[in-house]
Write a structure and sequence with these properties.
Chain A is of the alpha+beta class. In chain A, a hairpin with a 2-residue loop joins strand 1 and strand 2. The N and C termini of chain A lie far apart (about 55 Å). By secondary structure, chain B is α+β, with helices and mostly antiparallel strands. A six-stranded antiparallel sheet of chain B has the order 3-2-1-4-5-6. Chain B is globular and about 70 Å long. Classes of the chains: A alpha+beta, B alpha+beta. Chains A and B meet through strand 2, strand 3, helix 2, helix 3 and strand 5 of A and strand 1, strand 2, strand 3, helix 2 and helix 4 of B. Strand 2 of chain A pairs parallel with strand 3 of chain B.
């Protein structure tokens, strides 16, 4: 496949590009959804094509075609350059690229069990059993379960001489039970909302005890219907790991994207409350806050060997002892900001322009356990599993809802609380982080549905987190 | 068209006898020119050729999709779907594929837009940018063409095509931002100077901001805000699958909304932007969702229609088995007032240009939290007197439009951007008696 990518790059250079790269991508996916013990959908997809990027002046030109032939590839390259040239009608400062090593390499996701080789019947049957267990709990109206698997081959060629093949395998799934009341719905999910996804094979599904948690999840959904509504107040907030992972994603991960900081995403995704001049000095959170962007973590959803610009995967410090020290960047944004390139540029398939994407942006663990944190809390709430999320375009003002919460009194879990929400301002909230559980409860949570860019791209990102406590948080905000 | 039809028939031949199958081929070109910091930085174009296939073997159903350019891929697609179907349990709700019918000849197509070059989009961007001198502009201009072909094993064939052009952007002063948007069937119909001027004016008018206390405020909402409300009503309420699951607020034939509120889904309307059939080949039709404030209808695909004992309304989405049939060409009836008229009637309230990051807290009440963005203005004694930074709200969208809650409807309906994207909701501005703001975006 390298020959087609080379042809695309040659076409772009011949048409005037000062730099070009191309990716041939063949991606297949398999998904299945079960609702109330019936198969709602079983689908597979396969996309294949070439995407070529050409740089002229202050703009990238990009052209994608599903035709994988030498002729089509060369034409695609030429068109990418033509498109880039048209941008000169509204010009800006020329784009330059930070240096990266020229490599010829290959990389594959470590995995034990090819998820596509596991019989479809086995996978569907397990989902049906889980759905049945949930539906057997009286009052459950909807018992949904699903899985999805992704197998992606990509061949990257740059005009600077890099040639890289990668084979990336991703697996995951999950389920939820919904109980419907008079004027409300209550839902519980496992392992987390939208499922838990990872790089790896079917073993990443087997890691989780799907069948052993189905009854508990369903019973909790029923119990929530008659639970007390969380009252509005300021109190200590303990977050379960997967909810903290989404908190990291929204209030740290997006805010540290260098393209947002530079204003390149201003109209849609938004900008950031962070200002580059304050890198190395801005206080992001408490001393306990240590965030890294680490694309080398085995099994985490945002792991790979090389990004879609051919930059090697790396671990970068983002927040150290509460101080902001790093960003997510690509070759163009890093050069503009005078920073080293972070290798964090990826595209959603062959037909999209690569852009800055989170890798695995995670909070390094502390000490102790969730039980220790609860035991150490006189008055507060413990919230688990995301139900809603909303944050402004600067990543400053957020409001999250979770599926379930418990009151914490005198070091013990007490009343079950429904419709839990909390709200805050990013640096204020992170400044109140005062307890953080240790490595034994540190999980590489995956977010498989991160939207960014125009045309829209869906990214797969990872967020390692263990349970943590924040003080004086406003909870229970409702209409 | 003959070539594409032949290609689809070839796939049907491979499916073999005793198998029900439906195939949809979508082709076209999608191009988008993106600008930020007042210059074009990303300029992309994509050839689209995607085929989706659904097969049923004695009620065992599976689907497959992929980019298709050669016979080998076609063959693999068919084999994959049949193989998967053979391993499935029987689906008791499988409605079968659509029977032959005549597809409406409605075509929302502009040949010049289908062939638009990058330089034509760049010209629109330049007009937008130039409308806000000394400001920082960001946004995009897109042009796209889509030709869709459908066949199934019952002999049904449908074809249609559509084009869309969009200009969406903001102007920023450094302390404020304002937005503008236009969607049209034709790139030539986009008035880039007008869109840019509106965005620039909103940005200038937002420079001086002051704080207001959270609470209930009377509001005038732009077409974009109304589009998000209507989109959520359609996706989470009038969607027959959601209704069947008991998750919808819909109470049929009940006056759930203000009597001035009427909302229909109608891809055949002359102003439409979509092809005249859905992903199951069913012809689109006019579906009255709310008439005079009374809830009247649901959107159906073949599966939900079979369960409800009615006909499909032609609202199946590609790959939408889980999400359910959704209204995507919605028209909200406009009124007779200008935005200035509506503002003049407000003693103390807010004008909101755009909602952002709206998320459902509870589907049954359609309680939603979100933020305002790119233009939130204070209205005092009938005039805009200042601006506020973005605000967070938590509000039931159903209650907001409830009986006696709509105080005015604008005469300015157009295709508006929404939380789900542009080109799906044609909506006017609206004046509402109350909206619940819970705080500012900066604390």
């Amino acid at each position: 496949m390298f020959e087609y990518a080379r042809a695309a790059v040659e076409g772009a250079l011949a048409a005037g590009a000062t730099y070009a790269d191309a990716r041939v991508v063949i991606a297949k996916a398999e998904s299945m959804e079960v609702l109330n013990q019936a198969v709602e959908s079983v689908g597979s997809s396969e996309s294949a094509g070439i995407g070529v990027r050409a740089l002229i002046g202050s703009s990238w030109g990009f052209y994608a075609t599903p035709s994988i032939t030498n002729t089509a590839a060369r034409v695609a390259g030429e068109r990418a350059s033509e498109i880039a040239r048209a941008s000169a009608m509204v010009p800006g400062e020329p784009i330059t690229l930070a240096d990266v090593p020229v490599v010829q390499a290959s990389w594959e996701t470590p995995h034990d069990e090819d998820p596509f080789a596991v019989p479809l019947g086995e996978k569907v049957d397990m989902l049906i059993r889980v759905s049945k267990t949930m539906q057997d709990v009286e009052g459950i109206a909807l018992a949904r379960a699903g899985m999805a698997f992704y197998d992606t081959d990509k061949w990257f060629v740059s005009s600077q001489g890099s040639e890289i093949h990668q084979h990336i395998v991703e697996s995951g799934g999950g389920y939820d039970a919904t109980a419907i009341g008079e004027r409300e719905t209550q839902r519980r999910s496992y392992p987390q909302s939208f499922g838990q996804y990872a790089t790896g094979g079917y073993e990443m599904v087997r890691l989780w005890d799907y069948e052993g948690n189905a009854q508990r999840v369903a019973e909790e959904a029923i119990q929530l219907l008659s639970a007390d509504v969380m009252e509005e107040r300021e109190t200590a907030l303990i977050l379960e790991g997967s909810q903290l992972a989404l908190q990291i994603h929204e209030s740290v991960g997006h805010a540290i994207e260098l393209d947002r900081i530079l204003g390149w995403e201003a109209a849609f995704a938004g900008t950031s409350h962070l200002e580059l001049e304050k890198l190395q000095t801005h206080k992001y959170g408490s001393e306990l806050m240590n965030i890294t962007a680490d694309a080398t973590l085995p099994g985490a959803l945002g792991s790979f060997g090389y990004d879609d610009e051919g930059t090697p995967a790396q671990r970068v410090d983002i927040v150290k002892n509460g101080t902001w020290v790093g960003v997510l960047s690509g070759r163009d944004s890093a050069a503009r900001a005078g920073l080293p390139p972070g290798g964090m540029v990826r595209a959603d398939g062959y037909s999209r322009l690569p852009m800055v994407r989170m890798t695995n942006v995670g909070l390094l663990p502390g000490e102790g356990t969730l039980d220790d944190i609860i035991a150490d809390t006189d008055d507060g709430v413990y919230m688990a599993t995301n139900r809603s999320w909303s944050i402004d375009d600067k990543r400053l003002n957020f409001q999250f809802g979770t599926e379930i919460a418990w009151e914490i009194k005198n070091g013990r879990k007490g009343r079950l609380l429904k419709n839990p929400t909390y709200t805050g301002i990013t640096p204020v909230f992170w400044g109140t982080l005062d307890r953080l559980a240790g490595e034994e409860e540190w999980v590489h949570w995956g977010t498989p549905n991160c939207g960014k860019g125009q045309p829209m791209q869906v990214g797969h990102t990872g967020h390692s987190a263990s349970p943590a406590r924040f003080s004086n948080v406003r909870v229970g905000v409702r209409a | 068209m003959t070539h594409r039809h032949d290609m689809l028939e070839k796939v049907l031949d491979r499916v073999g006898s005793g198998v029900e199958a439906e195939i949809r081929l979508s082709t076209g070109v999608e191009s988008l020119t993106r600008f930020a910091n007042s210059f074009i930085h990303q300029n992309v174009s994509e050839e689209v050729s995607t085929m989706s296939l659904r097969v049923a073997l004695d009620g065992r159903v599976a689907s497959a999709s992929g980019t298709v350019t050669d016979e080998e891929t076609l063959e693999r697609l068919v084999e994959t779907a049949i193989d998967a179907a053979q391993r499935q349990p029987v689906d008791p709700d499988w409605p079968g594929v659509a029977s032959p019918s005549i597809t409406p000849a409605t075509e929302h197509w502009d040949a010049e837009t289908a062939d638009a070059a990058a330089v034509e989009r760049a010209r629109k961007v330049k007009e937008f940018v130039d409308a806000g001198p000394s400001m920082e502009a960001a946004g995009y201009c897109s042009s796209s063409s889509s030709e869709v072909f459908f066949v199934n094993t019952r002999g049904h064939f449908a074809a249609g095509r559509a084009t869309t052009a969009i200009l969406d952007g903001i102007h920023q002063t450094g302390r404020s931002a304002g937005s503008g948007h236009q969607t049209d069937r034709a790139l030539s119909g986009i008035d880039a100077h007008a869109v840019g001027s509106l965005a620039a004016q909103r940005a200038v008018d937002s420079v001086e901001t002051y704080d207001i206390k959270p609470g209930e405020y009377e509001v005038v909402l732009s077409q974009e805000c109304v589009a998000t409300i209507a989109m959520f009503l359609g996706a989470y309420g009038f969607n027959a699958k959601v209704y069947d699951e008991g998750m919808s607020f819909v109470d049929m034939d009940t006056r759930q909304f203000d009597e001035s509120f009427t909302m229909v889904d109608d891809a055949l309307d002359g102003r439409g932007l979509a092809v005249p059939f859905d992903s199951e080949g069913t012809s689109r039709r006019r579906v009255e969702l709310v008439v005079g404030g009374v809830t009247k209808g649901l959107t159906h695909d073949r599966r939900t229609a079979k369960k409800a004992g009615v006909e499909s309304t032609g609202n199946a989405l590609p790959g939408g088995d889980t999400f359910g049939p959704t209204a995507t060409q919605v028209f909200v009836d406009q009124g007779e007032q200008t935005v200035d008229d509506m503002i003049a009637g407000v003693e103390r309230g807010l004008y909101v240009a755009t909602f952002n990051y709206c998320r459902v807290l509870d589907p049954k009440s359609l309680a939603v939290t979100g933020l305002t963005r790119n233009g939130t203005f204070v209205i005092e004694n009938g005039k805009i007197t200042g601006a506020v930074n973005g605000l967070r709200f938590t509000q039931s969208f159903v209650e907001a439009l409830g009986p006696d809650r709509i105080l005015g409807l604008g005469n300015d309906a157009r295709w508006a951007d929404s939380e789900f994207g542009p080109g799906m909701i044609h909506s006017p501005s609206v004046r509402l008696s109350s909206w619940n703001f819970t705080g500012g975006t900066d604390g």
